[in-house]
Amino acid sequence: MILRFLYYLQVQRVKYQVATDKETGEPLIGANVMVDGTPLGAATDTDGNYFILQVSLVPTP
Predict the structure, then answer these.
(1) What is the structure's pLDDT at 33?
(2) Are strands 41-43 and 32-34 parallel, antiparallel or unpaired?
(3) Residues 44, 59: Cα–Cα separation, whole Å
(4) Residue 6 to residue 18: CA distance in whole angstroms
(5) Which of 10, 31, 46, 55 has the greatest count of CB atoms below 10 A from its CB?
(6) pTM here?
(7) Rounded distance between C-alpha atoms, residue 19 and residue 41, angstroms
């Protein structure tokens, strides 16, 4: 008997922010941003923007 399991991706959360220096308010370019306790992370762009997606596999019924 062959069992086939199908999964689809489900985006649970999208986080978008601008990383800035606390003292100057300037955007942080190329900074690594990580979510504590997870493998999730991103690097900031030239304007200090970063996006973090949390994606999970969900079995189809």
Answers:
(1) 87
(2) antiparallel
(3) 33
(4) 37
(5) 31
(6) 0.59
(7) 13
Structure tokens that stand for 58 in this block: 């969900």
**Single-letter amino acid, residue 50:** Y
Going by pLDDT thresholds of 50, 70 and 90, the confidence category of residue 56 is low
- CB burial string 19-35: b at 16+ within 10 A, e below: beeeeeeebbeeeebee
HEC per residue, the chain = CCCCCCEEEEEEEEEEEECECCCCCCECCCCEEECCCCCCEEECCCCCEEEEEEEEEEECC
pLDDT tens per residue across span 16-47: 778 888 899 999 899 998 878 878 888 988 98
